[in-house]
Amino acid sequence: MDRPAIRPKLTILLASPRGFCAGVDRAIQIVERAIQKFGAPVYVRHEIVHNRHVVERLRALGAVFVEELDEVPDDRPVIFSAHGVPKSVPAQAKARNMIYLDATCPLVSKVHVETQRHYDAGREIVLIGHAGHPEVVGTLGQLPQGAVTLIESAADAQAYTPKNPAKVAFATQTTLSVDDTAEIVAILRARFPAIATPHKEDICYATTNRQEAVKAVGARCDVLLVLGSANSSNSVRLAEVGRNAGSAAYLIDDAEGLNLDWLQGARVVGVTAGASAPEVLVQGVLARLADSFELTVQEAQAEPETVTFKLPRALVG
Ligand code: SF4
Prior knowledge:
The chain is α/β, with parallel strands linked by helices and 317 residues long. The chain has helices at 22-38, 52-61, 88-95, 106-120, 134-140, 154-159, 178-191, 205-218, 233-244, 279-292, and strands at residues 9-14, 42-45, 63-66, 78-80, 100-102, 124-128, 148-151, 168-172, 223-227, 248-252, 268-273, 294-299.
């Protein structure tokens, strides 16, 4: 498309940090290296991370995405997604002598270990999270059915009635809204002063940092664009945080999802990306905007994230 000679001015505030976190980076590398090592097809149980573009790229390289282990032949490797899986899944893979690789983010595994520790100590466990999200299904599936009670809201926290209020613990999904979770935790602490808490909060560093960055940008922009897929919990939260900070916020998969009508009258547009959304999608949106506007792009300054996670030994060297 030819650019019009005179384009309206638009300031872009790029949130920082944004996009890929260490857990997503590791999970994607696990799929890429497994395809190199074992050849295609390599099966992946559930979307490796919740991003349509990531999944499509890996599918083109030879990954086959399935929802259940039953769909995987015994003689092909299978990878478990970054969200984690119930204990029954690796047990089933072992029983079938399958080669399996676990791409569960180490920060999700940390929550699994924590809930097991509480269970072993005889505590009743509350998991704060969203019903049906694969991470929640995986965490609930670390312990016998009924050992963990899922609560999703402040009302659930008010209604929760443990058998022994003196022996309760809580854990959380890693990608929740920091503010909403703080409210739920405050209710639990008020009701159960002895409640055992995570050593370090379960909402991960990447979720926390991206939400903080969006608060800063959201307060200064008219419209916030969040690159991410609709099934990505942390991306959906970023749009909510942007709205709470005072801007209109839209979650889009890519530049094609952008509706320029949203920007009518806007002078400042914030842009961020969820932890599973590649930076190339942000650049695609900037390129699309540059066709219609004269852009001034300002990148927020933030401490660089230095977290990295090791790959499984089977794929190294
Ligand atoms: Fe791990 Fe957090 Fe990234 Fe999820 S968002 S993969 S918990 S670092």
